[in-house]
Amino acid sequence: MSSINPGNSQPAATKPIAGRVALVTGGNRGIGRAIALRLAEMGAAVGIGGRDAPALDATLRALQNLGARACAHAADVTQADQVAELAAKTEGELGAISILVNNAGIGVFGAVHERTEQEWDAVLATNLKSVFLVSHAVIPGMIRQGSGDIINISSLAGRNAFAGGAIYCASKWGLQGLTACMAEDLRQFNIRVSSVLPGSVATEFGPHSSAKNGSNALVPEDVAHAVAMLLTQRAQSFISEVQLRPLRKQ
Q: Is residue 226 over pLDDT 80?
């Protein structure tokens, strides 16, 4: 499934993260795909991981069409052995990872007493455990490089409660705590750890997708723009959290 294309020849001034290697989990569709494409446009070599092989291939082709060096590998990021293989293959094909975007996520919604243990385990493993696993695999290399950026795609559900959101909110509140502690652990190594908390995004994901006003909702590219902003902040600054809302209420 993996493939690499030569980088394009656009001027370095238009490519603010040229020479860097990014790994985006859940990079095959929705927000993850938009982030991967934006990073490629900014000059990064981009590796993507996900469980949907056809979607991975489609996104890989889109990255290659931008002239990016890119690779794609199917992986379940809730499994440590597959995470280790994803990180190793990405670095083997593209070089040392200096940007990690933990984007993989799922949602199960409904009253807490109506949900199952299996649903709890699936959501917490994907939305929280995977961030620990992938970060754990990538951080040692960033420490050796002496710098890096880790961006965790969270949600405003990590700050706000709503009916039917118990399991999802628990995973995102946990992610906020994990992100904040990682940031304190890693800033001494010149590694920034930040979170992006989007509100309603017009994708197939979410508890109220049928009720969303598509003209007012955020789109995946809005989240990608926030990631780009974090990666282009000045070297001595540290934006720890970005809360992202639609301009107009639904």
A: yes
Q: Would you say the pTM of this structure is higher than 0.85?
A: yes
- Report d(CA 79, CA 133) in Å as an integer: 8
16-244 domain in CATH 3.40.50.1820?
A: no
168 annotated active-site: yes
Of the candidates 22, 26, 134, 168, the residue annotated as catalytic is 168
Per-residue exposure over 28-40, b if at least 16 CB sit within 10 Å of its own CB, e if not: bbbbbbbbbbbbb
The pair phi, psi for residue 23, each rounded to 5°, is: -120, 125
Query: H or E segment at 196?
Result: strand 191-198
Strand partners, 197: 243
CB 134 within 8 A of CB 177: no
Classified as helix, coil or strand, 129 is helix
Task: Give the model's confidence band at 202: pLDDT under 50 very low, under 70 low, under 90 confident, else very high.
Answer: confident
Whether 88 shows a pLDDT value over 70: the answer reads: yes
